[in-house]
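Researcher: Re-running this chain for the archive, since the previous output was lost when a drive failed. Same request as before.
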Amino acid sequence: MPTFRYKAYNASGAAVSGSIEADSERLALQQLKGKGLLAREVLEEGGAKDAPKSFSFRRGVAAADLSLFTRRLATLTNSSIPLFEAMGSLCEQEENGPLRQALVRIRERIAEGASLSRALAAEPAIFGESYISMVAAGEAGGALDAVLERLADFLEEQEQVRGKVTSAMAYPILMVLVGGGVMIFLLTVVIPKIVVIFEDSKAALPFLTVALIKVSHLLRSWWWIPAGLTIASIPLYRKAMLRDDLRLKRDALLLKLPLAGGMLQRLILSRFARVLGLLLSSGVPIMRALEITGEVLVNRVYRTFLRQVMEEVAQGGSLSGSLKKSPLFPPLLVHLAGVGEKGGNLEEMLVKAGLAYEREFGARLQRLMGLMEPLLVLAMGVAVGIVVLAVLLPIFEMNQLIK
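Model: Regenerated structure tokens:
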């Protein structure tokens, strides 16, 4: 009989751990529930779940492919098709690639008697902990098809948000690259040829022209310094971000940035509320749901505070009361969470809050991009105008001297 290691919370909210023997993970969860324990984590000794996992809904494959697979699986399970046959059908429909290869292995594990969640857990490169936890909760609650439908909706909506951000950032990045390329070309190719004319005249040059000549000389003679610093900064930054204290400071600084900080906060709040609501509605215990949600949030400031929230909730505190103690969570989210707790529909209110913050993020992003486009065009025009003015000023002075 397999042995499962567990971490759970007892009736008083204290964390406990140990091992238990059961024929399956589902039976192990039932035994823990019978003992009055709230399961936080159940891992089979020597099983696939002992492998390290990343807390994410999507890994290794495109979100569109994973959401399509999830949608198809939900349709098949809702049609009462056996899981083994459903996996076989999905394997035939999927094109050859990482996802198809993973589905073949999952089908084999199901044929050996493994549950869907355990079969998925053996593919951590594709299915993250959040995905697996929701599937396990759906299996335990007998609502796997409904959970899969929610997962597919969530993946598609997250891909839409990601697409909006990518599309919005494409134009500014292109403008910066084109503008920077034009300026480098002018300073390293055009300006040196024009400078020869001014040097032969031996006339006093305007300050703007002298400054431009020095910048041009610096780029031509010492270009390797900024290039070397740029290249060296990448591994140095990655090494620095391995330290938790530096990552915490970076994330705190990002939240304080003008305009971008407020948008980032809305995006984080949307993801927090939607993921937590999705997990709770799928039957995941609140402590486990908070733990997964904390890991899904990449911002260390929010992640650190959520650990405190987990401790207070484990000791019997309310979620809304814990969130209210930090300015990271605005009154709207706290109020909706409180209403949901009183009305017994916390997951529904969290999803509504997440949708509200997602719409607010989209509106702010649209306004910001609408403001950035003319500003970038204006900045490029000013930069090129300065170069042209620096070239024309000495020419005008030379014409005055000739007259």
